[in-house]
Amino acid sequence: MSDNKLKVLYLARWYPHRYDPMLGLFVHRHAAAASRYCPVGVVYTHVDTEKSIKGFEVDYQMEDGVHVVRVYYNTSANPIKKALNFWKANRLGIDRIRHEMGAFNIIHVHILTRLGLVALYYKWLKGIPFLISEHWSRYLPLTNGFNGFLRKALTRLVVKNAEMVTVVTQNMMNAMKAHRLYNKNYRLLANVVDEPFLNTMSKRDKRNGSKKLLHISCFEDASKNVSGIVRALSKLTDRNDFEFHFIGDGIDFARVTNLASKLKLDSNRVFFHGLMDSRQIATEMVDADLLVMFSNYENFPVVINEAFCMGVPVLATAVGGIPERVNDSNGILIQPADEERLAKAIQDFLDGHITFDTKSLMQQSRKEFSAKAIGGELCNIYRQFATKS
Q1: What's the CA gap between 269 and 245, in Å, rounded?
Q2: 154-186 per-position pLDDT tens digit
Q3: Are 324 and 210 within one domain?
Q4: 312-354 tens-digit pLDDT
Q5: Structural domain total, the chain
Q6: Same domain, 67 and 187
Q7: What is the pTM of this model?
Q8: Are residues 217 and 151 both part of a single domain?
Q9: What range does the domain containing 265 cover?
Q10: Domain membership flag for residue 107
């Protein structure tokens, strides 16, 4: 049941925008899921690196039931002016959200730290509570990206004053607590799986002969190690019983495709599709037999949940929060950077030595990761704390 008295403002560090339609899609899915039960508005600010505008440009759209305001603005080399421009961009976005949907009574911050300070201002001066969802892997020991005395002090202040902090994995929660980011209400909250992955029925039993393997990522090799998959595939060139499909784009796409060419991978069996939207990915995944992720470090990629919802098991590295979800019932875990083990695991799967109950995997995952389930959970959280405002 929709609760129109409960109005939620999302402040998002990452969100799809005109320069990158894939950034922060998981935040959009949370917003769209919550909007099933209560009005949601999103403010996203973006520095105009193309320098195509002067001052501030406020763009408002209704997207999947969500009020979305994107503010594009120019930055400055002067740190004080830079901070003021960031604050003004958010204020312009928040004012437009108020105009479109009225006053909000809870704020949901996605990704720290600066937006947490905006939310803290509204709590201290306006009495509006806020919660945080953190997705950034910078807290993890391998990335070691959470540095600086001032950053740490401000982040601790923000986290302490939030009503709740949600994370996708226990691993992320532990990493944040290890940095003394303490809050009385930490909570695990899964990412939402998009509708195409919930409504597309598998045709895997109609396939004959070769199996279809997928890799889907942003092609950032330092974390995703896509080149490691390519090198592992080069050890399987004597097999003709599988296809491997790479989906995605990114800073290392050309380097990875050049490596595949250099290693003489068969272009009739190894495909690089580039960027795809959710519907296109679901179409590719519908008859897939295995998703392969070979990350060096990771929090928990939503593509794993998407694969599960399609009844596709996962071969992945035991990094970040992945071991919390991937186990013998739904996948294969290996150690990062072990290309020999990766090639062997693929061979074992192709040879039928490892099998899964894909129907059960699909049914359970579609129930757990749907927008209906997670949207309802989100709005119950909002009601719990918004009543205190």
Answers
A1: 8
A2: 999 999 999 999 999 999 999 999 999 999 999
A3: yes
A4: 999 999 998 899 999 999 999 999 999 999 999 999 999 999 9
A5: 2
A6: yes
A7: 0.84
A8: no
A9: 196-368
A10: yes
